[in-house]
Design brief:
- By secondary structure, the protein is α+β, with helices and mostly antiparallel strands.
- Among the domains are: 232 residues, 2-Layer Sandwich (D-amino Acid Aminotransferase, Chain A, domain 1), CATH 3.30.470; 96 residues, no CATH class.
- 31% of the residues lie in helices and 14% in strands.
- The chain is built from 17 helices and 20 strands.
- The strands form five sheets. Strands 13, 14, 15, 16, 17, 18, 19 and 20 form an eight-stranded antiparallel β-sheet that branches. The chain has a four-stranded parallel β-sheet with strand order 6-5-7-8. Strands 9-12-10-11 form a four-stranded antiparallel β-sheet, with helices on both faces.
- Helix 2 packs antiparallel against helix 17 and helix 16 crosses helix 17.
- It is globular.
- The N terminus and C terminus are likely disordered.
- This is Tubulin polyglutamylase TTLL4.
Length: 585
């Protein structure tokens, strides 16, 4: 039986340096319905591997090109013979680039994965409740629970409270935290409403007419009264607490006297023509993973939930919340509420089911609606991006450390137009019911997050211990540095002050790459390769074909945004050319 080391050695001898990754990335980038870019690289070639020091050569961490199977990353010093069988997945996911450390591979419960050596498992800790939805997935990949906030590698829990972003200073550079500082800019209904109103005022109804008319009391009392009086009919509004969840405190009102003018309340116009399923109101829960806020990288899960109210829709009874709201906490009290594990019947169904339903009953295709939903997601995230980016820069030591899975609640009206109703920062999961949805969603999320093995000197409890894990498997601080050189600062300053001539900006930004640009490109390309079932959002693409239109909404760090936009189409070719010039990372 061959050892992993023998397999790796044979792979190195057999594989030539070539450009299959270009083809891989071209196919990976095809996430928005566009035709993929084609390349002439043959399918049986091996991926190019790039060394951080600028030297070219095959990596010891490479696929077995003859078999197409991943090769174990372990060497003799860290493990004895490890056989990678057909039904056992590798414990680590290699980078596409040499000298870039691997990430932990998370798998579904129906899959098998290699067991990591104890010396690695000792430093893989997660901080979460035992009932946390990720507890099973991380445990399966070698993590153990800890209640020590200095010891965890992965945190999965509630975000720090509003106006407490400073608490994120406690997140250590090697730790992965599942919230972005001040993500309440999206997660609180008052802040979300304010941000979307601000962008709508700046860019207009055509671009930002993606949410119902929204007011925040008591500040907007006069404006609300004016809007209320201008509606001769359909004077139906939703009252919402600013930052509650699960439908708590939401009321449907038609009487001005019932509006609490002096309380901090969100008032939102009721969408009076909702799409119905079997006579009941529905909304969509769409899962969005923001893996980085600077630069901004957004992924959307193509599968989600269709939430269906128990009661039949009518406007004759505005007091029955089970008619007008789809939240579980409101509907599951009704004996008619039930959930089918296959998500094809009952009050929770899959988006796949919905697309089939719309095609069969309305003759409506999925793609136009899905494109509008993705457009809505991008615009919504961009409305809160400046707040989250500013807080991240102030309170996070390492851009590696934070990511966030959001749940967008989206209503489809009778014209198939999507409206963003709210965004959840800590979506709840019923893992024992929605396994068909949750298993691939959460494993893809964890793999996208890119969790790396910390070096022993990064861990407060182990920092005085000798290092026993090979260096090439450990997190490399150089890849995550946030200290910019003068050259990098100058480039950032140049491109972040450009407010027009975006065509020129995009055509020149990759001409001369700084080390920070290269790190960003490597990070983005590797991340996209781990995306699983998620779709990467190309926010440089606009519905009218103008690739640069959406950049009008980006207010900060244009340099980083542009590098990210081009990374999958031009970035790899740029890296190859730069490397040939002897570029040093």
């Amino acid at each position: 039986m061959e050892s992993a080391l023998v397999k790796m050695t044979r792979s190195i001898m057999d594989c030539c340096i070539c450009v299959t990754v270009i083809l891989l990335l071209a196919n990976s980038a095809n996430v928005s319905g566009e035709s993929p870019t084609t390349h002439s690289a043959p399918l049986n070639e091996c991926p190019v591997k790039l060394h951080i020091d600028g030297e070219q050569g095959p990596s010891a961490r490479i696929s077995d090109c003859s078999s197409g199977k991943p090769v174990s990353l372990f060497t003799e010093g860290i493990a004895e013979e490890i056989e990678v069988k057909d039904n056992v997945l590798p414990a680590l996911t290699p980078s596409l680039f040499s000298n870039v450390p691997p990430t932990i591979n998370f798998v579904r419960p129906d899959q098998k994965v290699e067991e990591l050596p104890q010396t690695i498992r000792d430093r893989l800790k997660y901080y979460a409740s035992p009932s946390s939805p990720i507890a099973y997935y991380v445990s399966f990949s070698g993590f153990t629970q800890t209640q020590d906030v200095w010891e965890y590698t992965v945190f999965y829990g509630l975000p720090y409270q509003i106006n407490m972003a400073r608490d994120y200073l406690s997140v250590l550079p090697h730790q992965k935290f599942n919230h972005i500082p001040d993500s309440w800019a999206l997660g609180c209904k008052d802040q979300l409403g304010r941000n979307l109103q601000r962008f709508k005022a700046k860019y207009g109804e055509e671009d930002y007419g993606i949410f119902p008319e929204t007011f925040v009391l008591p500040e907007d009392k006069v404006a609300l009264k004016r809007a209320w009086n201008s509606s001769n009919k359909h004077r139906t509004w939703l009252l919402k607490p600013p930052c509650a969840f699960g439908g708590r405190g939401i009321e449907v009102v038609q009487d001005w006297k019932k509006v609490p003018k002096k309380e901090h309340t969100v008032v939102q116009r009721y969408i009076s023509n909702p799409l119905l399923v079997n006579g009941s109101k529905i909304d969509l829960r769409v899962y969005v993973h923001v893996t980085s806020i600077n630069p901004l990288r957004i992924y959307v899960n193509p599968e989600g939930l269709v939430r269906i109210s128990v009661e039949k829709y009518t406007m004759k009874d505005i007091n029955n919340r089970a008619i007008h709201l789809t939240n579980k906490d409101i509907n599951d009290k009704n004996s008619l509420y039930y959930v089918d594990e296959q998500l094809t019947e009952g009050n929770r169904r899959s988006l796949t089911w919905l697309w089939d339903h719309l095609k069969e009953n309305y003759g409506v295709e999925r793609q136009p609606i899905w494109d509008r939903i993705k457009d809505l997601v991008i615009k919504t995230v961009l409305s809160g991006e400046d707040t989250m980016q500013r807080s991240t820069q102030h309170f996070i030591r390492n851009r590696y450390s934070v990511h966030e899975l959001f749940a967008f609640d989206i209503l489809l009206d009778g014209n198939m137009k999507p409206w963003v109703m709210e965004v959840n920062v800590s979506p709840r999961f019923t893992t024992n019911v929605f396994t068909k949805l949750i298993d691939p969603l959460l494993t893809s999320m964890l793999n996208l997050a890119g969790i790396q093995i910390p070096a022993v000197d990064m861990l407060p409890n182990l920092k005085h211990s000798p290092e026993t894990v090979p260096k090439n498997l450990l997190m490399d601080r150089r890849l995550w540095t946030q200290q910019l050189t003068e050259e990098e600062k100058e480039k950032h300053q140049t491109y972040t002050t450009i407010t027009d001539q975006l065509q020129t900006t995009l055509s020149t930004i990759l001409d001369t790459l700084t080390p920070d640009d290269m790190r960003m490109l490597i990070e983005t390309v590797d991340e996209n390769n781990r995306r699983g079932q998620f779709e990467r959002m190309e926010y440089g693409i606009w519905k009218d074909g103008n690739q640069h239109q959406r950049l009008r909404y980006i207010t900060d760090s244009l340099s980083g945004q542009d590098i990210t936009i081009f990374s999958l189409t031009n970035g790899f070719n740029v890296i190859i050319k730069t490397k040939r010039r002897g570029y040093k990372f």
